[in-house]
Structure formats: structure tokens, C-alpha cells
Specification:
There is one protein chain. With about 300 residues, the protein is of the alpha/beta class. The protein contains ten helices and ten strands. The radius of gyration is 18 Å and the shape is globular.
């Protein structure tokens, strides 16, 4: 496995991202060394808020949410998935699998010895976070799902998602910042778009971002489809608090919140909300509002 590591200077001094860099070796490379970056911000003794990003973003997506959550007393853990942000980036698409991503995040949680986790997950953050919850539901105190789902090849994907899949595989250069902008409803400043682009100096750094859509189990025979079905059996018994905060302007995930609420008992009597004037990257459009909703809900 050949790895690339974005130069530190490329991700320093970014707009509204003052957080110290933290790293752990999560293994998986030929020599066992694969470095994952994570933000660890807030009081160490506070309730843990695990913030999992998706495609093709990184922990920068949570920069609006972390300060108010930390100020309210929560310890915010926001990793960069392998292949994204300040984490190492294997150069071959074949280096990335759904199972490996699960293993990498699981290693982070184990090494940090995190328990009573309050999970906030969006996009691929849900595909990973909900699977990890299904493995050890006792480890999680609550879940907030935002513009995410756990597909198992049983339902037809949205037309918007199919267009995204086609675009992601055919575009000669994957325009990360532009993709973030297209997934937002509110204007995104140029310096913010540049910050989303910063971890990817050129196309050789984007194998993980490029392959992620292909890893979604859209057919019953897809890799990890059966494991996701098994995870749904656990979710169907999950009674701890489960909140949905979905955007009104996300065609990719429209209706997924209704399915979650219909299937997961922990969603009963929770203050679910549709966030107005927000798109797929709901944290970018409405990060402060999301943080406020979480604080009211949890604290």
C-alpha cells in the first residue's frame, strides 16, 4: 500500500479552523502504519460527541459546530476518515473498502477508549457510525442522524444519488470544493471552498474520495449489504435516544429520515426537525443551528 500525506502547510491557517492536530496509528498499511487525524476539542471529562463526516469533506465541515458544543461542556471528537483531510491517503482505489473504513474508525474509538458516545453522523458518517453502533450498541448513548442512511441494497437509490455516482466516476478531475458548494443552499465563500480543496494537492490524493460512491451497497449482492441488513436488526431494537435533523434542500437523502423514524424505536418522542434553507452539507449551511439543537437535546 502506497501512502500520500498532505503537507502540513497546506492545511494550516484555514478559515475558522484553529483546532490542534491529533494523530493515531490505525494500522492497515503494509508496514502496519496508517495515520488518522482527529480533532479533540473540549473538556476531557465532558460527554463525548463523535462527529463523523462523509464524502468528499473532512473535519473542517464541523468547524461551526465544535466551538459551541465544546463551550457547552462536550468533548468533540472529529476524525478525518482515511483518504480525507489530514489523514493518510492510500493511492489506489482498491486500497479502500467499506470494511477497512469500519476498521480504521473502530481502531480510533478503541484507542481513545471512548464510551457513552453521542454520535452525530452525516453522509458516509452514517454508513460507518450506524454499523459501529450495531456492533456495540452499549457503547453509544445517543445518535443524531443528519442527511444520512444505512443502505443495504433493498431500496432504489434516489435519482440525485445516481447522478452523483455517475458524475463522480466520469469527471476527469474531482472538484472537491465545487462539490461542497453544489451540495449547499447558502453561498460558500471562496476561502472556505479553498479549505475543502486543501487536503488534495492533486488527483493522486483523491483515490479515497473517488471510490467512496462505489462502496455504497446499492444492490442486495453488494459487498457489506448483508452486514448492513444485520445492522438494521440491531437498530430495530435500539431504544436509546435517536434524533433526526435533516435538511429541506437535500434531494439525495429526501425521505430517509422518515424511514429511520419508522424503524428505530429510539426515535420515539424525540424533537426531530427539518433544518430550513440547508442542503446535503447541512453542517456547512447550518452548523450553528445544528449545534444549538444538539445542546438543547442533550444538555
Amino acid at each position: 500500500m502506497t501512502l500520500l500525506r498532505t503537507p502540513d502547510a497546506d492545511t494550516e491557517g484555514l478559515a475558522d479552523y484553529p483546532f490542534a492536530a491529533n494523530y493515531l496509528d490505525v494500522g492497515g498499511a503494509d508496514d502496519g502504519s496508517l495515520r488518522m487525524h482527529f480533532v479533540d476539542h473540549g473538556p476531557r471529562g465532558g460527554p463525548v460527541m463523535l462527529l463523523l463526516h462523509g464524502e468528499p469533506s473532512w473535519s473542517y465541515l464541523y468547524r461551526k459546530m465544535i466551538p459551541p458544543l465544546a463551550a457547552a461542556g462536550m468533548r468533540c471528537i472529529a476524525p478525518d476518515l482515511i483518504g480525507f483531510g489530514r489523514s493518510d491517503k492510500p493511492t489506489e482505489q482498491s486500497d479502500y473498502t467499506y470494511a477497512r473504513h469500519l476498521s480504521w474508525v473502530r481502531s480510533l474509538l478503541d484507542q481513545l477508549d471512548l464510551g457513552d458516545i453521542n454520535l452525530f453522523c452525516q453522509d458516509w458518517g452514517g454508513l460507518l457510525g450506524l454499523r459501529l453502533l450495531a456492533e456495540r450498541p452499549e457503547r453509544f448513548a445517543s445518535v443524531c442522524a443528519a442527511n444520512t442512511f444505512l443502505p443495504a441494497g433493498q431500496r432504489k437509490m434516489s435519482e440525485a444519488w445516481m447522478r452523483w455516482l455517475d458524475f463522480s466516476q466520469r469527471v476527469p478531475e474531482l472538484p472537491v470544493g465545487k462539490i461542497i458548494s453544489m451540495g449547499c443552499v447558502r453561498p460558500v465563500p471562496d476561502d472556505v471552498l479553498a479549505a475543502y480543496d486543501a487536503p488534495f494537492p492533486d488527483e493522486s490524493y483523491k483515490a479515497g474520495a473517488r471510490v467512496f460512491p462505489l462502496l455504497v451497497p446499492v444492490e442486495p449482492t453488494a459487498e457489506e449489504a448483508l452486514s448492513n441488513l444485520a445492522a438494521w436488526e440491531v437498530l430495530a431494537e435500539y431504544k436509546r435516544p435517536f434524533l433526526t435533523l435533516f435538511a429541506d434542500g437535500d434531494p439525495i437523502m429526501t425521505g430517509a429520515d422518515e424511514i429511520l423514524r419508522a424503524k428505530i424505536p429510539g426515535t420515539a418522542d424525540q424533537p426531530h426537525k427539518i433544518i430550513r434553507n440547508a442542503g446535503h452539507f447541512i453542517q456547512e449551511d447550518a452548523g450553528e443551528e445544528l449545534a444549538d439543537e444538539l445542546i438543547k437535546w442533550l444538555l
